[in-house]
Model the fold of this input.
Amino acid sequence: MVDESLTVIVREFDVNKDRERVEAVEMSCEVGPNHKLSLFTNMFGDPICRVRHSPSFLMLVAEIGEEIVGMIRGCIKTVTCGKKLSRKSKQYNITTHTNQIPIYTKLAYILGLRVSPNQRRMGIGLKLVNEIEAWFRKNGAEYSYMATENDNLASVKLFTDKCGYSKFRTPSILVNPVYAHKIKVSPNVTVIPLTPSEAVILYRNRFSTTEFFPRDIDSVLKNKLSIGTFLAVPSGSYSTESWPGLYKFLLGPPYSWAVLSVWNSKEVFTLQVRGASRVKRALAKTSRVLDRALPWLNLPSIPDLFSPFGFHFLYGLGGEGPKSVKMIKALCGFAHNMALERGCAVVATEVASCEPLRFGIPHWKMLSCAEDLWCIKRLVEDYSDGSVGDWTKSVSEFSIFVDPREI
Done:
């Protein structure tokens, strides 16, 4: 006779009856044992907040009896997986910048897989992954991918050994603290805010063939959480008063320029570092006191990461020309000052490990992750476009587009 109390049932998340139990599982999974540092996420009572802004999303829970023992979130979007030459010469104009056009695929993303510590090694994680993949296939996704820390052996083993995923990309998460004083932006750079419509045109024109570029970029840039898109140009080329508009800029851009957009993650969830010793807390507090007292010395200070803190995420970083790295650095300084005004503790971004512009992105090594790990899996037999073939076997590009809706 089967003991029904031990039967694992996977079903769709119900906010009315599951919210508190899901939060309890989240807390049990994210607080590390033996006083090790761990990262706790406060989702403000909305367990699907991290996928809510995606075009299509789902959250599943695993239940044994009346107890929720695991959960998983997934979302689907259409992104660039490659590029090819256009056969139409009319494509070679301002709308596409080059004669290369993007090849799109429907991509699914897995995040937030959690299993209660007391119910691990029972196949619950595998069952959740299988169920969310079934939903992906039903909704036409061709590929599925997930992200995890490179040293998270349990997660890597589950996805690569049992779920059929392969290691795909190793981008870098770059995190910089927000100091108690403003950063001086280079006087040789002018920062021009773009309207959402201008930003859409610029990104489609210059970055639509970038790997993982979302086809619905307009939905991203016009989302209420997207604070704005900012263009850096050499001083003297343009000013906010003499800005001629995006079309004229594209017809004759300056010799160097850069762009980035800012996403207000603080409105979605906050983070908190737990498990730090009293010594580490005291050192961090001392650094902040000195930084506030002596701001002209630019002393490195550690923000209060041991209390819930918000952050801004920088996305869509790109640029052209010999000074583009310096332009990105200026934009990062501008974004830092914006985060300071809005009460954020850190500014973060994620870029390809070989991204040329990363040298202009200020970050602290102790807060950053040099190698995040993305694993990918083909969900269907056929290819959406034969000129790409199997995307899982493609060579890494210099740049990727990290969608802020999935952080």
User: Anything to note?
Assistant: Residues 31-35 have pLDDT under 50 and may be disordered. The chain is about 25% helix and 30% strand.
